[in-house]
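Title: Prediction job returns without error message
Component: structure pipeline
Severity: low
Priority: P3
Assignee: unassigned

Description:
Job completed but the reporter wants confirmation the result is attached to the right record. Sequence as submitted:
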Amino acid sequence: MKNSNKPSSSDESLYFNIQADSRLTKHPGGLKAPRELVEACHINKDSFALVVGYGAGKTPKMIVEETGCRMIGVDLSAGMVEKAKEMAKACKPGSGFLRGSLPTRPTGNSPSKR
């Protein structure tokens, strides 16, 4: 018997695409938690940060703007990757966004360029 309470992968894709189109992401607590993590990890202009599940790119953008670091973002949703590429304009060269998940290998040979 099929579990009707579990969303299908197409349902999840639709959900993430709606979030990407509206630039809404689930981020409990806003940017306070990522700022605390940046401070705890001593991320600075010489750092290279990895952001997994970045949504529309607000968190990586904030990290880059406030620290000057380079970063790579990995997200499951192709829609979120496309929206986040717009945010890449604020990033240092060598920063970018990839579609994928961990522990699977992200698709593409290198991050999107500005």
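Comment from assignee: result matches the submitted record. The chain is about 40% helix and 15% strand.
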